[in-house]
């Protein structure tokens, strides 16, 4: 015990001075707008490490599996993609890994339904609008339900919404256990690399970040999240509201209007989805902030998930656990685009305006533009959506 | 961390599923990943609610029938991964030179038949057909029109005049339908 203490104190005293010098150096360079390039170097090293790990895993898996006889040759995958969900392969990350090619996707309203055309024949309706006189002739065939059944089973295999509330799956492992879904013990080399990474993250990066955190915020009290809220509230003014209170929304809208009517007030930062999403997609924007009438400056934010996932899955773990994850990640790398201001057109509804802003942000950030409501994390789909689909089906039967 | 199901798929299980269903190991792993993400409580099986939590499925007019088909073999109202895969394998495309066990044309037709056959007695009655029609169109078409549709459909398909559609009559009625295409999902490797 005494030996350990003396070793620790010795190493601290040896490393103390150069460390302090380094910190001062970085601060000085930052203040004059230059950088040592330490961060870039760090990022490059990590990327090389991940690439090595990935190749290593592939080789190891092939050796383990040892059977290439069941490789089924699939027909070449066609290039057209569903229009309602522009699935962009992020150039650097390339994370969207689909299991199937969707033929039909039902959306919250039938205009948003996607159906792959050409190969799929629409339901045959023998008698069209030529026959205006008597009753509408409804041609039903036992095969008519098959489209719906197939769409349903497809959605069980892969849907647009459930994956959005879970952490993004990475194409190659980034040496954090938390993103490790499939790999059991593969090779010694990989495990050693992981163990070293673990040491670096928990013994070096974590204490460093905790230190910075403590110095930055101040004392500790109970109620961790409350503490953060208080600290943030001291830093800049907030408008708090209760999500479920309807009257509250009017009060909030009023406060928003008051705030923006004064030209000198700082701009309001709004996150219109209303819930945490895993940063692969943009979900429906709540129309409240778009009704207020002011200039909207869209900001697109995209985290690079290879270094650390910034997504807080509030149903799985709490804030403290999340903070621990953040502090032991390799890094949080984030791209931010400030987009030109947007104005609401005179005859445009708030919903249309919100959708317009959403698509601009989605396009810039390389995110999927979803029409679904982010509240689906907590609530069930509305009954009206199903009734709309039933209406759509009956229209098909009637031949409209 | 305990966030994901710590039950990884063992090699023997993958081999067994591959043998029964014909999926490749890669596909099985991807589908297992999907299975665990639907399994919110990490218990290794799915309940009906787990399925209906998928919004696109919940708004599908035939959601109950589709979910029910997964529970056909289940005793405790839960679905394990093997049962899950068996049902999905019905939708594998038919391959000309390979053996098709659960995804042959007949199996696909049998699955489609089970969508209509509510009480699972091997026959589709007029009331069962009416119930399915109700599910699909809601309140948008009148009761009389639906009844006449149901009666007409049975009349056309019923060859042995028992006022019900049995499986053979069903297959006959769907002779000219491209079942292979309508009931196949394109899996990527």
**Which sequence of strands runs across the widest sheet of chain A?**
2-3
The N- to C-terminal Cα distance of chain A equals 84 Å
Structural class of chain B: mainly alpha
Helix amount of chain A, in percent? 40-55%
Describe this structure in words.
Chain A is mostly helical. Chain A is 43% helix and 6% strand. In chain A, strands 2-3 form a two-stranded antiparallel ribbon. A two-stranded parallel sheet of chain A has the order 4-7. The longest helix of chain A is centred in the first third of the chain and has 30 residues, at 2-31. Chain A is globular. The termini of chain A are far apart. With 189 residues, chain B is mainly α. Chain B has 2 domains: 11-90, EF-hand (Recoverin, domain 1, Orthogonal Bundle); 102-183, Recoverin, domain 1. Chain B contains 11 helices and 3 strands. In chain B, strands 1-2 form a two-stranded antiparallel sheet. In chain B, helix 8 (126-137) packs across helix 9 (143-157). The longest helix of chain B has 15 residues, at 143-157. Residues 1-6 of chain B have low confidence and may be disordered. Chains A and B meet through strand 1, helix 3 and helix 10 of A and helix 2, helix 4, helix 5, helix 7 and helix 8 of B. Strand 1 (100-101) of chain A pairs antiparallel with strand 3 (186-187) of chain B, so a sheet runs across the interface.
Fill in the keyword field for this structure.
heterodimer; A: 400 residues; mainly alpha; two-stranded parallel sheet; B: 189 residues; Recoverin, domain 1; 11 helices; 53% helix; globular; disordered N terminus; membrane (chain B); myristate (chain B); cell membrane (chain B); protein transport (chain B)
Q: Layout of SSEs?
A:
The complex is a heterodimer of chains A (about 400) and B (about 190).
Chain A: H1 2-31, H2 38-65, E1 100-101, E2 104-105, E3 114-115, H3 146-157, H4 188-217, H5 224-235, H6 246-261, E4 281-282, H7 288-291, E5 299-304, H8 319-327, E6 333-338, H9 350-365, E7 368-369, H10 383-398
Parallel strand pairs in A: 4-7
Antiparallel strand pairs in A: 2-3, 5-6
Chain B: H1 11-21, H2 25-38, H3 48-52, H4 55-58, H5 63-70, H6 81-89, H7 105-116, E1 123-124, H8 126-137, H9 143-157, E2 165-166, H10 167-173, H11 179-182, E3 186-187
Helix pairs in contact in B: 8-9
């Amino acid at each position: 015990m005494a030996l350990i203490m003396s070793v620790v104190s010795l190493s601290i005293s040896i490393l103390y001075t150069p460390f302090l010098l380094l910190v001062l150096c970085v601060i000085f360079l930052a203040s004059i707008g230059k950088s040592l390039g330490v961060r870039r170097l760090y990022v490059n090293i990590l990327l090389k490490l991940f690439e090595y790990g990935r190749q290593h895993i592939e080789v190891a898996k092939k050796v383990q599996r040892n059977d290439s006889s069941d490789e089924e040759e699939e027909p070449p995958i066609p290039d057209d993609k569903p229009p309602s969900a522009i699935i962009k392969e992020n150039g650097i990350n390339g994370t969207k890994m689909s299991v199937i090619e969707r033929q039909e996707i039902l959306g919250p309203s039938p205009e948003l339904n996607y159906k792959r055309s050409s190969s799929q024949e629409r339901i045959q309706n023998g008698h069209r609008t030529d026959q205006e006189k008597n009753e509408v002739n409804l041609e039903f065939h036992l095969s008519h339900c098959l489209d719906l059944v197939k769409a349903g089973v497809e959605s069980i295999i892969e849907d647009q919404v459930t994956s959005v509330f879970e952490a993004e799956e990475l194409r190659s492992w980034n040496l954090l256990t938390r993103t490790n879904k499939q790999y059991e013990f593969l090779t010694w080399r990989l495990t050693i690399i992981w163990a070293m990474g673990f040491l670096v993250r928990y013994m070096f990066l974590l204490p460093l970040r905790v230190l910075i955190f403590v110095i930055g915020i101040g004392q500790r009290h109970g109620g961790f999240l409350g503490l953060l809220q208080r600290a943030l509230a001291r830093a800049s003014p907030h408008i708090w509201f209760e999500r479920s209170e309807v009257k509250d929304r009017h009060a909030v809208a009023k406060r928003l209007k008051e705030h923006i009517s004064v030209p000198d007030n700082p701009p309001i930062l709004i996150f219109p989805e209303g819930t945490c999403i895993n940063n692969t997609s943009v979900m429906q924007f709540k129309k409240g902030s778009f009704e207020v009438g002011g200039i909207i400056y869209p900001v697109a934010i995209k985290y690079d998930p290879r270094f650390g996932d910034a997504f807080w899955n509030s149903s799985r773990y709490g804030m403290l656990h999340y903070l621990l994850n953040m502090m032991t990640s390799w890094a949080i790398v984030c791209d931010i685009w400030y987009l030109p201001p947007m104005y609401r057109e005179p005859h445009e509804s708030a919903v249309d305006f919100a959708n317009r802003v959403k698509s601009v942000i989605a396009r810039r950030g390389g995110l999927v533009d979803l029409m679904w409501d982010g509240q689906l994390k907590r609530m069930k789909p509305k009954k009206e959506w199903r009734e709309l689909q039933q209406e759509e089906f009956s229209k098909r039967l009637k031949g409209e | 961390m305990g966030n994901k199901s710590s039950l990884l798929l063992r090699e023997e299980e993958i081999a067994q599923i591959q043998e029964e269903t014909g999926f490749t190991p890669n596909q099985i792993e991807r589908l297992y990943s999907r299975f665990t993400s639907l399994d919110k409580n990490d218990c290794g099986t799915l309940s009906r609610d787990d399925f209906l939590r998928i919004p696109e499925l919940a708004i599908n007019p035939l959601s109950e029938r589709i979910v029910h088909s997964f529970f056909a073999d289940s005793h405790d109202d839960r679905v394990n991964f093997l049962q899950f895969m068996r049902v999905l394998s019905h939708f594998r495309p038919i391959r000309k030179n390979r053996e098709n066990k659960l995804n042959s044309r007949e199996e696909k037709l049998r699955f489609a038949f089970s969508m209509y056959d509510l009480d699972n007695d091997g026959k589709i009655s007029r009331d069962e057909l009416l119930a399915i029609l109700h599910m699909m169109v809601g309140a948008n078409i009148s009761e009389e029109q639906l009844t006449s549709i149901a009666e007409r459909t049975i009349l056309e398909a019923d060859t042995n005049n028992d006022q019900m559609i049995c499986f053979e009559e069903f297959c006959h009625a769907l002779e000219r339908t491209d079942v292979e295409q309508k009931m196949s999902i394109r899996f990527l490797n």
